[in-house]
């Protein structure tokens, strides 16, 4: 193999948050090498800057790590951005993800937190996909973006997605060829529900009557009970519906709105629920009220309702309506409230009546709410994280206020990616002294 004159021989010392190998260039500049593993010696060509360092293109692995494996997916070599760690063994991925949680808690001040072994979900179980769509001279492209690029890679196989989602791609391409509403680009969000695939189609053009008829035929042929459509980022509307849609969350059937957020896999959802419930006593003190913040469709709400009365807060109106209706049908002690917790977090007086709070924020975390919880008199908080960086920032408030980490569980439900879920249980080190002035 010819070696570029610009390439350098690098020793990989660690792995960054994006799953890149970490090295130092000859001039002392930090370097990120996608596809490299700790302990390896590689040849790489330095490229564009990223922050204070540079990203390099891996050209050769001179001394491979014993944890290096051959990626099984054909799209890895084509630069698919869906997976960044297929070249690492499952054991190496699990160890690295656990280390990320250990490091995030340590940065927050919890240096000896009890962190469990990573729970890794099985491959081919992802039940939610957001496919990018492009119309070009060669026809319709439907798949995932190339790593670090807006270019869309046509997907014909995937080791991560449920095979039923992958099987939908080819007929989707065929249907989109005749769909006038897709002019140049769009997206297809598919949730695999108990009733079958649920499709939210976003296009860059309006939906004509002929398009609606085409979508209805596609739904009938492919067993898709509902297709919703939206132009751009506008609101979704029904385009074709052949029957009801439903998914069981915590054993409770829920009718989700189009494109609703779901945990990535059934096994990932089960692991998160189990870790949350394990963080709570079977019998909660006092009146047993639990707050579920950022409740979504009720993934955690319904299991929690079997431990006590749940006040569920969620900012999305459609999700609140679905959660509330499902709880009512099931006869569960749940009160669902629409509230934008990023702009209006629960205050100290509102938090005072809860025996436990479960906080499951979006990727950006919940800095304001975490700070209030850390100052509150709630005895127990369970934080469900999908972003170690946000977790570390939010955890600092609990460390500064004297809380302790009772348990921390890393959950890898985005296998082969750099993403990590975690469930962290915080307990007060000691109850407040009687007669102390309540903070307002």
Essential attributes:
disordered C terminus; Rossmann fold; 7-stranded mixed beta sheet; 8-stranded mixed beta sheet; OB fold (Dihydrolipoamide Acetyltransferase, E2P); alpha/beta; disordered N terminus; 440 residues
Report the biggest beta sheet as strand number plus sense, adding barrel if it closes.
8 strands, mixed
Please give the number of β-strands. Answer: 23
Kindly provide the radius of gyration, computed on alpha-carbon positions and rounded to a whole number of angstroms.
Answer: 24 Å
Fill in the CATH topology of the largest domain.
Rossmann fold
Gap between N and C termini: 68 Å
Inertia-based shape? flat
Strand percentage, roughly? Answer: 25-35%
Q: What is the name of the CATH class of the largest domain? A: Alpha Beta
- Total number of helical segments? 10
Structural class: alpha/beta
The stretches of 5 or more residues where confidence is low (pLDDT under 50) are 1-5, 432-440
Q: Which range best describes the helical content: under 10%, 10-25%, 25-40%, 40-55%, 55-70% or over 70%?
A: 10-25%
């Amino acid at each position: 193999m010819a070696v570029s004159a610009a390439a350098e021989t690098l020793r990989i010392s660690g792995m960054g948050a994006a799953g890149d190998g970490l090295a130092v260039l000859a001039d002392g500049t930090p370097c990120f090498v996608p596809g490299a593993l700790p302990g390896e010696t590689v040849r790489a060509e330095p490229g564009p800057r990223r922050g204070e360092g540079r990203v390099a293109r891996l050209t050769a692995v001179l001394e491979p790590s014993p944890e290096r494996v051959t990626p099984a997916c054909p799209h890895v070599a084509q630069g698919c951005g869906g997976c960044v760690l297929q070249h690492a063994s499952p054991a190496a991925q699990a160890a690295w993800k656990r280390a990320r949680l250990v490091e995030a808690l340590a940065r927050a001040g919890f240096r000896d937190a009890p962190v469990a072994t990573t729970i890794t979900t099985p491959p081919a179980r992802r039940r939610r996909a957001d496919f990018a769509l492009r119309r070009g001279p060669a026809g319709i492209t439907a798949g995932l973006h190339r790593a670090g690029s807006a270019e869309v890679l046509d997907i014909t196989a995937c080791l991560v997605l449920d095979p039923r989602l992958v099987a939908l791609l080819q007929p989707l391409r065929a249907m989109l060829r005749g769909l006038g509403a897709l002019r140049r680009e769009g997206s297809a969000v598919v949730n695999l529900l108990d009733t079958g695939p649920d499709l939210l189609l976003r296009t860059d053009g309006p939906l004509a009557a002929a398009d609606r008829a085409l979508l209805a035929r596609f739904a009938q042929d492919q067993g898709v009970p509902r297709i919703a459509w939206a132009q751009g980022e506008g609101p979704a509307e029904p385009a074709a519906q052949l029957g009801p849609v439903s998914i069981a969350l915590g054993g409770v059937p829920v009718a989700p709105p189009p494109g609703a957020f779901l945990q990535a896999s059934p096994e990932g959802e089960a692991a998160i629920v189990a870790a949350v419930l394990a963080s709570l006593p079977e019998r909660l003190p006092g009146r047993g009220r639990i707050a579920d913040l950022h409740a979504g469709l009720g993934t955690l709400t319904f299991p929690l309702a079997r431990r006590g009365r749940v006040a569920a807060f969620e900012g999305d109106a459609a999700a609140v309506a679905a959660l509330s209706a499902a709880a009512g049908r099931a006869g569960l002690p749940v009160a669902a409230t629409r509230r934008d917790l990023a702009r209006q977090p629960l205050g100290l007086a509102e938090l005072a009546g809860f025996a436990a709070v479960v906080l499951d924020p979006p990727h950006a975390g919940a800095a304001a709410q975490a700070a209030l919880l850390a100052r509150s008199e709630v005895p127990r908080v369970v934080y469900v994280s999908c972003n170690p960086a946000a977790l570390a920032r939010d955890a600092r408030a609990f460390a500064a206020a004297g809380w302790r980490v009772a348990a921390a569980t890393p959950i890898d439900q985005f296998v082969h990616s750099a993403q990590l879920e975690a469930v962290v249980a915080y307990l007060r080190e000691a109850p407040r002294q009687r007669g102390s002035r309540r903070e307002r």
